[in-house]
Amino acid sequence: MNITAINATDKAIIEQVVAIADAHFAVGYLAPQQVIDYCNSPKNNVFVYQKNHQVLGFCLSAILDKTHLLEYTKDHPRVFECPADDAFGVIKTIAILPKVQKTGIGSALFAHAEQKLIQKSVNRIIIPAWVYADTMPIANIMKNHHYQPWFYVKQFWLDICNDELNCPKKQNNTCICDLHFHQKICI
Q1: Are 155 and 131 in contact (CB under 8 A)?
Q2: What is the chain's mean pLDDT, rounded?
Q3: What's 175's DSSP letter?
Q4: pLDDT reported for residue 162
Q5: What is the C-alpha separation between 131 and 43, in angstroms, rounded?
Q6: Is 114 exposed, middle or buried (CB count within 10 Å of its CB: 0-12, 13-18, 19+)?
Q7: What whole-number distance in Å separates Cα of residue 10 and Cα of residue 7?
Q8: Alpha-helical regions (H) of 5-121
Q9: CB environment 155-175: b (16+ within 10 A), e (fewer)
Q10: Which of 6, 38, 44, 162 has its CA 20 to 30 Å from the CA of residue 62?
Q11: What pTM does this model have?
């Protein structure tokens, strides 16, 4: 398998990860320092799929406690219902170079990140699935891995999209992207 976890000193790989994020989401969605900080946290992983030293896709995953999941989900009421001591795995971001999409790289990265989270004994895994124009790019992967809808947040990125990002998905200069949270209970 061509999937590895990177570390904060992998500058060339980090640059490739940021370039993929810029092309896939929006310029500025993921900065090099954010990737470095992500790598430096023991509860986070940045996995890359490489071929011939070229990054073809990446995945960010993390383990969050309830307090941090509440912060991440903007204090969504469904999170308040969870036991206080739950450990939540989050597969936060997956992005693949356009020329190699639909070749199984995203599925491989997803399965790898999911397995690593399960090995760390998380109680449930959360997938914040990006939705725009009624399209959820990760829908088939989640279905194949038996994730269930949990809740959604309309216009999740509204503040940063309108103020900071030059998002290509904007319509009439307004954010249209939602985030649909899915989950799988592990224990």
Answers
A1: no
A2: 90
A3: -
A4: 62
A5: 26
A6: buried
A7: 6
A8: 11-24, 32-40, 66-72, 77-80, 105-119
A9: ebbeeebeeebebebbeeeeb
A10: 162
A11: 0.91
